[in-house]
Amino acid sequence: MKKFALLAVALMMATAPIAPPVSANVIERACNQSDRRAANRQLCDCIGTVADMTLNRSDQRQAARFFSDPQRAQDVRTSDRASDEAFWTRYRSFGDTAEAMCG
């Protein structure tokens, strides 16, 4: 019976879907793909690391959109919505930290 249980567990593990490796941080990818002259792999890696330390995944996705659509950042910054104001506070903290650590 023990051998059967071990075989069943081994079979389940062998056929179970394997989780994909963790992909690069969305902000790091957006930075690397941006057309900004100052962007380079080392800087983008540092900014991505700071994003991982200071922003949750949802905030990172929202902030990454700013690289391709700067107007979106302006719209969020000037919004009167409480959720946008809260995000902008977290985003500013991320920016200040990134500047101190990566600048």
Overall mean pLDDT score? 82
Give the number of domains. 1
In terms of per-residue confidence, which ranges show pLDDT below 50 for 5 or more consecutive residues?
2-23
Q: In percent terms, what proportion of residues is strand?
A: under 5%
- Please estimate the helix content: over 70%
Taking the sheet with the most strands, its summary is: none
What is the radius of gyration?
Answer: 20 Å
Number of strands: 0
| Overall outline | globular
Number of helices: 6
**How widely separated are the two ends?**
62 Å
Structural class: mainly alpha
N-to-C SSE series? HHHHHH
How does this model look, in words?
- There is one protein chain.
- By secondary structure, the protein is an all-alpha fold.
- The protein has one domain (23-102).
- Helix content is 76%, strand content 0%.
- The protein is built from six helices and no strands.
- Helix 3 packs across helix 6 (82-102).
- The radius of gyration is 20 Å and the shape is globular.
- The chain starts with a helix and ends with a helix.
